Amino acid sequence: MTGMTNTEITAQIDRQTFALGGDLTVRRIGYGTMRLADTPDIKPTEAVVWHAPTPRAAALDVLRAAVENGVQLIDTADSYALGGSEELIAEALHPYAQDVVVATKVGMTRPSPSEWVPIGHPAYIRQQAELSLRRLRVERIDLLQLHRIDPEVPLADQIGALKQLQDEGKVRHIGLSEVTVEELEQALEIAPIATVQNWYNLATRQHDAVVDFTAERGIAFMPFFPIAIGGHAGEDSPVLEVAREVGATPAQTALAWLLHRSPNILPIPGTTSGKHLVENLGALAIELTDEQYARLDGIAAAEAAKAAEAEATAGE
Question: Which residues are in the NADP-dependent oxidoreductase domain (predicted)?
């Protein structure tokens, strides 16, 4: 940042942080721990997230490296490796640094390695929060997110259980995962919502309206699977073109697009590699021009057209 004025330096730092719930300021690239399960050679799209990671020492090293390299937001869930992910985080990082926020999720059961079943019964949500408190070794969870809305239970009861935990001092902020604008509006009538965590990246854009809605209300949007996997990052693609122009990797460029998309976006890429971890964090230093952003933004239209064509063909 040589040659920059104090105002420019401050503006750049501000662009790199966001205050969750208005009071927990974190850097805008966190670390998602879903990949820290099973074995490192399993593809992300094939992972069952069922067993504690092997080798365990390597997973502990990656978590510690994340914090050492400036990550301030660690995201997990009670269903990852049946609580094993939360235990791993505590083993690696407890006692937690004052500026580290640990977020977890409840409301999803794992009857088998292939099943993810939402259960939103208030008593179950509260019980799972108690177990998360024990596994994370904390008295209050910084951010507790409802993993999925259970369609069999009134939303008011599910959000009400989270609000009860907040009122009891066991939860600081409440978040939701994979929700629509309408569902978020209903939840906001019951309790303050600090974050939304939906599937979103360059090629997966069905939640554009949610991004805009949360941005208008100061709610953090935490995209999972933020680095899209597909042909759009291949040779002669806009991602690779822009990556070469800014001196970055395609993964960094995809993350930079998210950071440019809206100031409330906090990507939480996961990896089992310390090298990829550092690479992902490097996206914070990449500034795209409006023209480069627009070129990358065009990928969404192309991907949507492909999906529509595939759907139409399948229906013939």
Answer: 28-300
CB atoms within 10 A of CB 4: 11
pTM of the model: 0.91
Strand order from edge to edge, sheet including 31-32? 31-32, 73-75, 101-106, 141-146, 171-177, 195-197, 220-221
The full set of domains in the chain, from first to last, is 6-230+263-287 (3.20.20.100)
pLDDT tens-digit readout, 246-268: 999 999 999 999 999 999 999 99
- Amino acid letter at 55? P
Is 80 in the active site? yes
Assign 3-class secondary structure to the chain.
Answer: CCCCCHHHHHHHHHHCEEEECCCEEEECCCEECCCCCCCCCCCHHHCCCCCCCCCHHHHHHHHHHHHHCCCCEEECCCCHHHHHHHHHHHHHHCCCCCCCEEEEEECEECCCCCCCEECCCHHHHHHHHHHHHHHHCCCCEEEEEECCCCCCCCHHHHHHHHHHHHHCCCEEEEEEECCCHHHHHHHHCCCCCCEEECECECCECCCHHHHHHHHHCCCEECCECCCCCCHHHCCCCHHHHHHHHHCCCHHHHHHHHHHHHCCCECCCCCCCCHHHHHHHHHHHHCCCCHHHHHHHHHHHHHHHHHHHHHHHHHCC
> What is the C-alpha separation between 272 and 293, in angstroms, rounded?
29
Among the options 80, 96, 124, 200, which is catalytic? 80
